[in-house]
Amino acid sequence: MDEHKSAVREKVWKELRKVAFPDSRFDFDFSEFIADFEGSSEALTRLTELSCYKNARTIFIAPDNCLDVLRLRALRDGKLILMTTYAIRRGFRLLNPSEIDPSRYEFAATLDGAEKVARPITLFEILDEKMGIELMVTGTGAINMEGVRFGKGHGFFDLEWAMLYTIGVISQKTQTAAVVHDCQVLDQPLQPEEFDTVCDLVATPTWVINVPEAKKPVCGILWQQLAPGMLESIPPLRELKQMIESGTVKQPEP
135-138 and 149-150 as β-strands: parallel, antiparallel, unpaired? Predict the structure, then answer.
């Protein structure tokens, strides 16, 4: 499975380099970040025209380079934005437009700005605030017409889905959307694993792909399959483990 995913990523990344913008830290090392790309604003406009965006009050937006404009648009539209920090190492953050001066929205929408402006929030606080999340948006490395996505190879979006699913603020009905360049969309079968989060929508600069009956994972965190060091480096994972052990939430049963 790992060889299959790696082969797909390498094929797409070769084409993506032609249209992607380099990262200030990682240049074109797509294994370390999800790139912004030519036409991302058009893709995001297509997404924001959909009812799933218009009707959502709270949106999870992954900390991907191609989603800065979406965070800005969501702030201006008065939506709550839940996001994570890079590699989830500093946990979750909440961007609440009512807590931010509008003159700082553009700064807050950037990844560096969100680190300074967004409010740190724990899983328990997300649960306690009854924060129902109606839409989850991510960039990705590659995706096919059936919404099966492969990211950088670290599984962070799948962890984010699993944690939020376990505490009950999302469900299988929660819409998931990927924002990608057309070159990242593959017309070929991809093999999802039990924990892979399939997307309902794929927004590109030229069109929107709707995936009927996209299957979302219901397994929660597969603790035995976590990569070495992941539990130690991701505070929300440790918090979730404690919440399960204390009976605050239950480990999902597939």
Answer: unpaired
